[in-house]
Amino acid sequence: MAQLSGLGGRLYSGETSFNIIGKRKRWYSISAIFILISIAALAIQGLHLGIEFKGGSSYTVNKAGASIEDARTAVKSIGIPGEIIVQKIGTSKVRVQTGSVTPAQSSAIEDALAAKFSVSVENIDTQIVGPSWGKEITKKALYGLIAFLLAVMLFLAMAFEPKMAIAAIVAVIHDVFITVGIYAVVGFDVTPATVIGFLTILGYSLYDTVVVFDKVRENTKSIVASGKSTYSDAANLAVNQTLVRSANTSLIALLPVASILFVGAGLLGAGTLKDLSLALFIGLAVGTYSSIFIAPPFLAQQREKEPAMIALAKRVNSRGGAAPASSDIQAVRPSTGRGPRNQPKRKGRK
User: Fold this and answer.
1) Cα(22)–Cα(235) distance, rounded to whole angstroms?
2) What is the CATH number of the domain that holds 121?
3) 34 against 100, higher pLDDT
4) How confident is the model over 5-15, as a mean pLDDT?
5) CA dist., res. 298 & res. 305, Å (int)
6) Residue 169's closest CA among 157, 158, 184?
7) 25-54: string of b/e by CB count within 10 Å (b at 16+)?
8) Which of 169, 217, 186 shows the shortest CA–CA distance to 281?
9) Which domain holds residue 44?
10) What is the pLDDT at residue 234?
11) Position with higher pLDDT, 340 vs 281
């Protein structure tokens, strides 16, 4: 911990610096790989929407020793059309999900499951969702997401500047797209809990990004007048100054979410926690990455195109004041504020 604290102090003072802004192409390439994987997963197998969105029926049997094979055999014997999804919940529950069925077919499924597992029909938890209700839930989820993004962009544009708002939204879209792609890869159902998880990670990602941008704004407030460094150099210092804080905050946030995902959903079999915890775990990790390696480099790239920043970069480079961008970690020696001493020439003896 002492070493981490010492590193944080050196990063904040500028004695040590990770060249994050200068290596933006590397971070863009890493994100591009995950985005391509997400596109491929969404194109090949798509998202597994829960019955809350697409409509259908769900039957949960609480019986010790219940198996997926027995439940699937019981439902298939009725001849229900469409895909049948059977999941194990914990050690004593089995959930069967089907498409839209008629009341007669629903009763037949309940009777078949009751006979297969030797339970009464009243002990089977049945949930039927119509397709029209599922479409309405989908529409409301999309409206909520769009309204959230617009409100955040408006707030950031007023609190900071328009280009910071654009960079923050780019990072948010980056986070959502990768999280959705991973959902498609693992094949988890998208439920209302998943949407709640998405909105939660959007808020967390923006929170981390706003902290970094606030430091960027502080470091670049009078950068043109001072002419000591370029916008990218000042933004890179801001990212380094908030790096340890972002890492500590993200680690503390990931630990309880990981316990929910791996212990609650994995070991204890709490299926209701699986959708929410997976979205939170992936989103928190990706959101931390984007707030450091995507949003600030994208902002600096846009600001460096402005005429004032181009002129500033020329002035700094002409004086040799630009920091070298060839290494990943730079060790900066603090300046004493004095120029080189000229030693007097010694006259030779006659």
Assistant:
1) 10
2) 3.30.70.3400
3) 34
4) 66
5) 11
6) 157
7) eebeeebeebeeebeebbeeeebbbbbbbb
8) 186
9) 7-48+134-324
10) 92
11) 281
